[in-house]
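As a warm-up, study this chain.
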Amino acid sequence: MKVENIKIYPCFAAHPPKAEKMEQKEWDYAQYGLENANIVLDSQNYLIDGYTYYLIARNYGLTSVPIRYSSRQIVKASHKIGGKLYAWELPGMLIDRVSSGEKLIVETSRGLRTVKVAVVEEYTFQEPKPFKMVLRKHRTGKKRGVV
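Now compare it with the structure written out below.
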């Protein structure tokens, strides 16, 4: 894809990568080219991963880069029925596999907790700070060790 056609969300532009990270990615680029680059776009060509490689491509004047398409989703869920909704990001393996009413295991400031999903949404990068990641789905059925 042409580098000029890649769109950048304001949250990426507002938080440039640290110098050490850029140095490491530039070293990788010098050694392997874009072989290890993982530039990921959403369906509207907005960058969702690979910002450092995007910046390297622009700095070196590259006209096109390899990309792949994906999406990111968040869940809004509560600890109690009717309680306050909190948001977590879904890991790649759970994208499009979680629906309202399901229980998930999440990490909170008080440790691992089970929450009930109220809604699943596409991640729009408009939120002021990043989300914590969902760990896994809640297991149902028999308890371990019980026959």
